[in-house]
């Protein structure tokens, strides 16, 4: 475990410095629970989430800000993965509403990273599953499974899997909002093992 981390980007940083900082944080937290925990204990989660709090779809045409938010979503995915304490902390810091809003972006990579972050935040976490669904994520996720880029389709199916597992209300919501047909479509047209895994996981989470 590293004892120091790249600083969370703050306004005085240049755009490339901010991006490089977030990329470094992402790689440090990838598949490393000790580093996930160290980053959280250093107070990094609220600072990182604060980058997202000004985001709204169509609310900015600043490409550097859009790219930074896209990278932060990927970092949140890695910080939350398999770490319940970080799932709690990220939700408490207010990350869920802006991440759900990112699903409505026209940028395919932002859509994809937001879906992946939702999958990590909601996985085996009942409170986050409910919060994500209440914030309005189910309908855009179903749309992305049908119409998104290849990566966004897979990651959105993974997010639906996370939302549906052991959560009867979310299962009902996914079914009512038309989530089954896009999943079946991806099962037929998906070109990767990841597609099959995510769709099978979502459909096997229980009756939808």
From TrEMBL:
Domain of life from the UniProt record? Eukaryota
The UniProt entry annotates ARM repeats at 94-136
- Cross-referenced Pfam families: Arm (PF00514)
GO terms assigned for molecular function = ligase activity
Which key words are in the record? Ligase
Q: Which InterPro entries match?
A: ARM-like, ARM-type_fold, Armadillo
Give the protein's recorded name: E3 ubiquitin ligase
**Which organism was this protein described from?**
Chrysochromulina tobinii
Q: What is the lineage of its organism?
A: Eukaryota, Haptista, Haptophyta, Prymnesiophyceae, Prymnesiales
